[in-house]
Amino acid sequence: MSLFPIISTIWAVVALVLLIAAWRLARVGRTGLHRNIMILLTVGAWIFVTNYIFVQRYDGELGSFPREYVPWMALHGSLGLVPLLGATCLIVGRLTTGRSRFSAHFNRHHKAYGRVFIVVWSFTHLGGIYNAIFLR
Question: Considering the entire predicted model, what is its pTM?
Fold first, then answer.
């Protein structure tokens, strides 16, 4: 039996808690801690996605679920990439401040993007928890 479902559920719960904590920290002006948590979450999410694609799908045990869940799984996975790519852009923008139009754009609209990405990313993590509970 694969440990991936257990690890992915733990990741979904921990990441959701950290995401909410990072949002609250940003709201109260503790941007340094917010930045560190978001970097941790983004790196962790890239590790998770890379592991899922290259280890679980191509080299490991493939999970099985009823065919009627294929659209949900496709939506969950695709939608999860949106805030991951967005958070990556926001972080790169912050870390390269003043070096390009790319960083200027993402720094100027950081708060607006963040408000959208937290909703989508929270939905994705809740979807991961749903998958672990109902799609065993």
Answer: 0.83
